[in-house]
Amino acid sequence: MAYDFYGPGWSEVTGPPAALYNPGNQVSGDSGITAWLQAGLSAKKIVLGLPFYGRAWRLADADNHGLFAATTGADELNDGAPGYRQIREFISENSATTTTVYNETVVTDYLYSGTTWIGYDDTQSISSKVSYVKTKGLLGYFAWQVGADFNDILSTQGQ
Question: What highest taxon heads this organism's lineage (predicted)?
């Protein structure tokens, strides 16, 4: 399980819920996998978990909207845990005011609109994580929860 690293209720700042890498911080999928491999576990016994949902915060300041920005708690969108389908609907409904960002260093996506901030995985981050699994020779990957996908967009990134 390589997700829920950051979330409203246990993080007072925005953060990548499922960072593959997190320079300067040991909280990432890669750091966990590396630790297991260094401990002697075979790569063929490791499966990487991918979330098909995000974590949503209410920003303390709409002008401070990057990773690790101060928050005032969970956004009302599904009590701070919107599924990918809900995230896509939010983007569609708020397209004029929503900015989406892909951070290739961390391998995460996030968006902000006013004081709403959502960290999640989109097609580019899922594709990068699937490539990582293949490069590392891991057994595979799994998604939680497939029912939250939008028209199988994320589910088909591993093909």
Answer: Eukaryota
